[in-house]
Amino acid sequence: MLLTRSSRQALLRPGSSLSPAIAHLSSSCSSPSSINGRRTFVSDADVEKARAYCVNQLRTGDYDAHLVRHFLPRGVRDAYLALRTLNLELARLPETVSNPTIGAMRMQFWKDAINNTFDGNPPREPVSLLLYAALAGLAARTETNPGDGNWSSIKFWLQRFISTRQQRMDNRPFASLAALEEYSESTYATLMYVTLAMLPLRSMHVDHLASHIGKACGIAAILRGIPVLAAPSPQPSSPSTPRRNPVLLLPLDVMADVGVREEDVYRQGPAAPGLQEAVFRVATRANDHLITAREMLKNIRAGQDPGHDYEHAGETGHTYGEDEGGLSPWSSPSSEATDELRALQRGFNVLLDAVPAQDFLTRMEAADFDAFRVKSGWKLPWSLYRAQSTQQI
Predict the structure, then answer these.
(1) What are the boundaries of each domain within the chain?
(2) Where does residue 325 fall: left (phi above 0), alpha (psi -120 to 50 degrees), or beta otherwise?
(3) Which CA distances in Å does 14 have to 50, 142, 200, 251?
(4) How many CA atoms lie within 13 A of 102 on its CB side?
(5) Domain 171-234+243-393: top CATH class
(6) Cα 22–26–74 angle (5° rounding)?
(7) Which of 47, 129, 330, 354 has its CA 20 to 30 A from that of 370?
(8) Which stretches in the chain have pLDDT values below 50?
(9) Is the distance from CB of 149 to CB of 200 less than 8 angstroms?
């Protein structure tokens, strides 16, 4: 339960502001002692300013997410905005901080910001304020059945997301393709889990789909970054600006297998021996996840088993017992299939992150897997509209 009775009533009164919307979490998320009776006032104007800031950040820094947002249910758009702006902020940190200590301090700020936002005391910065508003909206939507709000999992996922980003602050290459997939699960797939939970929706099959799509998105993001990160940085405009060293984040096992050397890529760029083959192998793994997601969609809609087990079932945030909002273990197969179809219909638009990933991989293939020659595309808005209309990814 996110809100106290009095604060819920204040939230739901016409014309009321959001505060004191989030007064406390249930004991599964935080203890009363962590709150100390403090409350933060957040006005509608504060939320509007935060929303405008996040929209502008995505428009200029993550246009794919900016487009996807328009196809999401209204109830989760603010959450998606906040999450993807946070993702953008953390992705930029390795390139904008002058030393690891400052980077660690920034990461700790975001961890504290999440805790404080869940405690009802968001920092006066746009991402936290917008997330606070989204959580208040979720509390309002689940007022009649507070158990639908998966608060502890949302908080756990957000903290895991930040911790994973922190572990990659040094921009070191991934040890293996499996390590890249694990990273993608803890970042892009995790953001999708949070978005689904904000609907709220808890479904093993939809989470399973989000896992495959999130892995594809994470791998695609690493491939997108090759021309930027592997190129030597220009001379800093001022002495206070950190000089970035080129990095290549492709999995080491793949590079070793095809004979790619980082130094060759830094010196020769796209002409480096074996680079296109390495990119091809990594891109193929991303595409395999999208193919698997499409096959799962087809099977679920046919009332069949998805085709393989969900490897993360039973982990934190992925328990689906009846007492936690999942399907009853005593449900008949036909009722389970019906419930999963309903869940898929409710959560489908959150899965539209698959469309930008596929669009990028298609353009990468057209460039013969030369990451430096991938052309920009203009078809993504139409592809998103078609995917939503046909309910196909």
Answers:
(1) 1-33+41-146, 171-234+243-393
(2) left
(3) 21, 18, 23, 53
(4) 8
(5) mainly alpha
(6) 50
(7) 354
(8) 1-37, 323-325, 327-331
(9) yes
Q: Which residues of 193-217 are buried (b: 16+ CB within 10 A; e: fewer)?
A: bbbbbbbbbbbbbbbbbbbbbbbbb
* pLDDT, position 241: 57
Give me the pLDDT at residue 147, please: 63
| Residue (of 156, 188, 221) closest to 351 by Cα position | 188
Distance from chain centroid for Cα 15: 32
Record the tokens describing residue 14, joined without a space: 């016409």
CA 186 from chain centre, in angstroms, equals: 9
- Ramachandran class of 308: left when φ > 0, alpha when ψ lies in -120 to 50, beta otherwise: beta
CA 336/CA 333 separation, integer angstroms: 5
Give the model confidence (pLDDT) of 332-376 as tens digits.
556 777 888 999 999 999 999 999 999 999 999 999 999 999 999
Spatial distance between the Cα atoms of 291 and 358, rounded to a whole number of angstroms: 10
pLDDT in tens, 26-72: 333 333 323 334 556 889 999 999 999 999 999 999 999 999 999 99
- Is residue 58 within 8 Å of 84, Cβ to Cβ? yes
H helices present in the chain, as ranges: 5-12, 44-61, 63-69, 74-96, 100-118, 126-141, 151-167, 177-184, 190-197, 204-224, 226-229, 252-258, 262-268, 275-301, 333-347, 354-366, 380-390
Q: Which residues contact 381 (CB under 8 A, 6 or more apart)?
A: 67
Which amino acid is located at 149 in the chain? G
* CB distance 205 to 213 below 8 Å: no
Question: Could you tell me the maximum CA-CA distance found in the chain, to the nearest angstrom?
Answer: 68
For residue 8, the model assigns a pLDDT of 39
